Amino acid sequence: MTETATRPAPDTSVGEVDVVVVGAGFSGLYLLHRLRGLGFRVLVFEAGDGVGGTWYWNRYPGARVDVKSMDYSFSFDRELEQEWEWTEKYPPQEELLRYVNHVADRFDLRKDIRLETRVTEAVWDDEDARWMVRTDRGDQVSAQHVIMATGCLSTSKVPEVPGLETYTGRWYHTGHWPKEGVDFSGQRVGVVGTGSSGVQSIPLIAEQAAHLTVFQRTPNFVVPAHNHPIDPEHQRSVKAEYDEYRRANRESGFGIAVPPATKGALEASEEERQALWERAWYDRDNSLVTFLTGFTDMITDKAANDTAAQYVRDRIAEIVEDPEVARLLQPTDHPFGTKRPCLGTNYYETFNRPNVRLVDVRKDPIVEITAKGLRTGTEEFELDALVFATGFDAMTGALTAVDIHGRDGRSLRESWAAGPRTYLGVQMAGFPNLWTITGPGSPSVLSNMMVSIEQHVEWVTDAIVALRDEGLATMEPDEGAQDGWTRHVDEVGHMTLYPSANSWYMGDNVPGKPRVFMPYIGGVGPYRQKCDEVAANGYEGFVRR
Ligand code: N01
């Protein structure tokens, strides 16, 4: 392959590399850096015209991460982690994109990244023991390994409502926001969806638009973000102890270290519970996981969980002036945390604005997009702009979007027809040398993604190096090991309250998607330990030839 700029003419001759990486977000960039350092020839394909993945695509108003900056950053390079100065508790999208671009430049990564190039197909050739990878620009590359660094929330979903093609206004999906931004001044805007993207964008769109209608199907639990400029002294003190700080994150449950809970919510006194919930709601240094980790039984015991859920419902009732609107905003159909909880800034307050209306589309569903706007069963809404904050085909969508055929032509889409099956969330039986980063069956979306990304990148690259060092060509899971792990992921998931909610964790947001709890809730620390044990035992459960 030629080593040229990032927008080359397609290479229709067959090039050869050791590893093709799909995606140039945080995972893809770290993979490229690490594999290159280990002496592999690597080529990265990226659909966007810039690096950054999630932070490249999600440019909607208010987009920012909801894990603290000191935790949501790379730890693999000491100088990088010491030199980069974060400005806020939760960095906004622009700052994260600047950070990703800095990483790409700092480690000279761009020359091996082909932008605006989407991988469409990967086919395994058993005789050559190599993958043939093809792209939408006509590239053909033969690679010993293919690593899918395609992200868990990257295949955006517009609702299956008829009529969008007839709509004469402008419409947007939060996960594909125009680079130049959108000016809603003077417009009548509709936002469909009240997950994290809706919760972040609604207050800002309401400030700009003439009128905003929020179409809500399920109310979510939204905790105040208390975002603020980062205290320089705090940043210095974390950096002074960064190794220890990172170690604690790696050994924790969600990839964010918290003091261990010592008792269940119902064993605690009313005062103790109240004190914790007050801290989780009002403390400016709170975090997304405070509600979930303060007591031992928050995600396993409905009655314990209810104490937090009720606390949040009470706060909503205090903030929202119209009691009927407050009632609609109060989540009652799922336990706290079983749909991804959100952090918000002025979210509930926004519904006190005179230019904002909340419409319950659970009771009165959207039936059609019209030329002028949107129609529910009982009412038509004229809208100059429509924003779909309607989420993603999560965890599996970006993987099954590529036509992947493994040993004996086995298709990944067909193998996963009843739900994803993996061993440790890194490989699939029948797909040798195909790897997933933060794939289904790993802690992934239930964790601080940076911790999980680094762990996967390091584990996968170590496994590839071990193959090379031992003169072996291929690695894939044993079917039995995969069955056992898939069962374990499911069993642990069903020990919790998560499956009781309709959520994208369960595939519920995509019609026809099998209902399976996709991430592994066993905890980032125990999961890492399991992966390390497997490696130490000669990659137990994998077949290596
Ligand atoms: O998507 P979502 P998101 N009619 O799937 C509604 C991460 N993230 O982009 O719940 C009406 O959560 C749907 O309703 P329901 C984070 O992990 C992180 O907001 O299915 N409504 C729901 O309200 C997050 O969880 C950050 O009933 C329809 C909404 O659309 C994940 O990405 C920021 C509908 C979709 O919510 C996804 O978040 C943003 C229909 N036909 C995202 N179809 C931060 O770090 C769907 N909905 C801060």
UniProtKB/TrEMBL annotation:
Keywords: FAD, Flavoprotein, Monooxygenase, NADP, Oxidoreductase. This is Cyclohexanone monooxygenase. Belongs to the FAD-binding monooxygenase family. It holds the Pfam family Pyr_redox_3. The keyword NADP applies. It comes from the Bacteria. GO terms for molecular function: oxidoreductase activity, acting on paired donors, with incorporation or reduction of molecular oxygen, NAD(P)H as one donor, and incorporation of one atom of oxygen. Coiled coil: none annotated. Its cofactor is FAD.
